[in-house]
Amino acid sequence: MARKKRRFEQAGPAVPNEQAEKPRYQDPFQAAVTNRIEDAGKAFEGKGRTILYGVGALVVLGIIIAVFVQWNNRSQAAAQTALGKGIEIMQAQVTDVPPLAGSTEKTYKTQRERAEAAIAEFERVAGEFGGATGEKAKYFAAVNRLHVDREMAVSELEAMAGGSGEVATLATFAAAQARADAGQFDKAAEHYRKLSTGDGKIIPLDVIKLELGKTLEKQGNKDEAVNIFFELAKTASEAKDKEGKSIPLSAAALEAKDKVKELAPEKAKEIPEPDPAAAGLPFGF
Predict the structure, then answer these.
(1) Where are the chain's structural domains?
(2) Residues 145-167: pLDDT tens digits?
(3) Alpha carbon of 168 to those of 40, 109, 135, 139, 275: distances in Å?
(4) How confident is the model at residue 66, as a pLDDT?
(5) With CB atoms 3.0 to 4.6 Å apart as the test, which of 75, 77, 171, 200 could cross-link to 161 if both were Cys?
C-alpha cells in the first residue's frame, strides 16, 4: 500500500574539517544516503529491502547504512575503509547468475554465503582496530549472523543493547525485530518499551511506538495497541510548523492512523484531519 512507504528522520553530523581532505571510503549507497534514515530507505527501495519493519538481517540494513555514513564521517581513514569493505559485502548481490565478463562485482549464491563473508570481514576489523570501531564491527557482524545462527546473533545483540549510545540503540531495535519475527512478542515489546523512553535521535520515536503497537496487537493486547496507535496518529495530526500550518504525517503516523481505523473505527473519528491547503501538500500524498 502506498501509505506504508517508510520514511524516517535522522540528522547526521557535519564532516570534521580535519578529515575533509583525507582519502575517504564511499560505499555505493553513500551518494544516495544523506543525513536522514528516510533517504537510506529510498536508496534500497525496489531492492528487496524491508527497512526497519522487516525481519532477519535486512531488518536494520537501511538504518545501519545511514549510521555507517555518520560513523564514516568521524572515523580515521583506515577504519573507514575497513568497515566499508564489510558494508560492500553486505550490499553485494545474491544471485546464481555469474557477473558479466570483465566485471569486478562480487556476488554470492545465497544470503548465508554473503552473511558468512561479511561476518568474517567485520570480525577481522574488530580484531584489528578494537575500541569504538571494533564495537561497530561487532554490531555489524551480529546483524549478519541473523542469517547464519539466529540464536547466537540475538544473544550478541542483546548483550550490546545493555550498553549506551548508537550501537546499543541499534542493537536493541535489531533484537526487538528478531524477537518479534520469532513470535517472542513479550521480549520484543520489552525492547521497544525501552527504546520508547529514549530521545529518538537514532531511531525516530514514532517508528518505535508504531512497532510497539504492532507487537502488542500480535500479543493480543489490542486495547493498549489501539491507544498507542491513536496517540501517535492524533499527536502527528495536530502538529503545526512555525507558521501554524499542519505538518504532513510521517509514514509511521499514517500507518498508525490506518491501524486505528481498522481496530477501532469509532475512536479513529477523534483524530483530526490535517488541512491539506495549510500543509502546502495534497492530503493523502
Answers:
(1) 1-12+26-95+108-203, 221-285
(2) 999 999 999 999 999 999 888 89
(3) 20, 32, 10, 9, 39
(4) 56
(5) 171
